[in-house]
Amino acid sequence: MTIAFEKTALPIIGAPMAGGTTTPELTAAVARAGGFPFVAGGYLSAEALAPQVERMRETAGNFGVNLFAPNPVPVDRAAFDAFVAALTPAAAERGVTLSPDPVEDDDDYEAKVDHLVAHPVPLVSMTFNLPTAEVVDRFHAVGTQVVATVTTAPEARAADERGVDGLIAQGPRAGGHSGTADPTRSIDDRATVDLVREILAEVDLPVAAGGGVDGVEAVEELLAAGAGAVVVGTLLLLSDEAGTAETHRSALTSPEFTETRLTRAFTGRPARALVNDFVREFDGLAVDAYPAVHHLTKEFRAEAKKSGDPHGLHLWAGTGYRSVKTGSAETIVKELGTRFARG
Q1: Sequence-ordered strand ranges (E) for the chain
Q2: Using an 8 Å Cβ cutoff, are 40 and 26 in contact?
Q3: Any residues with CB less than 8 A from the CB of 78 and at least 6 apart, and which?
Q4: What are the pLDDT digits (tens) for 213-251?
Q5: Tell me, what's the pLDDT at 313?
Q6: What are the domain boundaries of the chain?
Q7: How is residue 327 annotated by DSSP?
Q8: In contact, 22 and 16? CB cutoff 8 Å
Q9: Residue 15 has pLDDT above 80, yes or no
Q10: Per-residue confidence at 279, pLDDT binned at 50, 70, 90?
Q11: Concatenated DSSP letters for 192-243?
């Protein structure tokens, strides 16, 4: 059986960027270009996800839906309280009151799985944790393929054992959250192409790859290493159809921001962002506590977005951010993938 992301005209996948960055207009543009579009299911309730899936279904017959698989980390209350205390003065300056108690949730995961089983789609991918064998079997029963995001060869082997149909190999240079199943681990820098080779030496599954993609040459390198498709996210952030906040858009091209870093400061889970004042001040105090820290800083970040303050906002970006382009996502995807169009 061919995996869904290898059935497209171009071997380019539009990354499912949650929180409003991946819009219906963006997924439609990726599909028009001949790439594989993903509906970003993270941070949405099952009720909110449903119409987005149906709109995608009306736009393209071949697409995926990405979900956050629950992976709670026990909250070290003393460390969490210390982080709250450190953040409180900065929050007060912005008129934000922080809740002192950790907030947990499962991102409405079970309800979204139930909905997608009842209303099948071609492919469902999981990130933040591996799907259980039971969930994989439920999707297979309704004809849906299952893909797991993996960041190491051991994760790839574990996903294979649970019966998934394919993998997305996410290198540490990718923007936004790492999909690692162990968010407490130290993540070393490495090229995504090396991760792809390591995974393909361990498992016999279709693999898509992303992380640090900065142009056609990077796409070519990953495909040559054996990837069946290449995931692009950061390169779409300035596209016309992306829901990227204006403050975030400006920061991506501003000479003020010169590097990216994996940080837990914004959400309690490692994520790569442009280094701003928030990262510099709070990264060293950050705790492994997703989604508790995500909920703690959410209003703080929302206020920064509202006021146009890039130093209080999570400026997700991969290491290839200097190569971002404006214009239609359809054009960007075609420029990246046309040389590698499937025969």
Answers
A1: 12-14, 38-40, 64-68, 123-127, 145-150, 166-170, 176-177, 207-210, 229-232, 260-263, 271-274
A2: no
A3: none
A4: 999 999 999 999 999 999 999 999 999 999 999 999 999
A5: 97
A6: 4-70+107-242+325-340, 73-105+258-314
A7: B
A8: yes
A9: yes
A10: very high
A11: HHHHHHHHHTT--S-EEEESS--SHHHHHHHHHTT-SEEEESGGGTTBTT--
Q: How confident is the model at residue 72 (pLDDT cuts 50, 70, 90)?
A: confident
Q: Is the pLDDT of residue 343 over 80?
A: no
Q: What is the sign, positive or negative, of the torsion defined by CA atoms of 262, 71, 284, 102? A: positive
| pLDDT greater than 90 at residue 319 | yes
**Nearest Cα to 219, choosing from 323, 66, 316, 315?**
323
Strand duo 271-274 + 260-263: pairing: antiparallel
**Residue 167, pLDDT score:** 98
Note the pTM of the prediction, 2 decimals: 0.97
CATH topology of domain 4-70+107-242+325-340: TIM Barrel (3.20.20)
Closest-CA residue to 337 (of 169, 219, 213, 218): 219
User: Which ranges constitute the DSSP H helices of 60-132?
Assistant: 77-93, 109-118
How many angstroms separate the CA atoms of 78 and 325, rounded?
A: 44
The first and second tokens of residue 81, run together, are: 């309280």
Confidence class for position 266, pLDDT limits 50, 70, 90: very high
Three-class secondary structure of residue 14 per DSSP = strand
Give the DSSP H/E element, type plus range, for residue 52. helix 46-59
Question: What are phi and psi for residue 113, nearest 5 degrees?
Answer: -60, -45
One-letter amino acid of 242: A
Q: Which residues pair with 127 in a beta bridge?
A: 68
> At 305, which amino acid appears?
K
- Render the burial of 110-136: b for 16+ CB within 10 Å, e for the rest: eebbebbbeeebbbbbbbbbbbeeebb
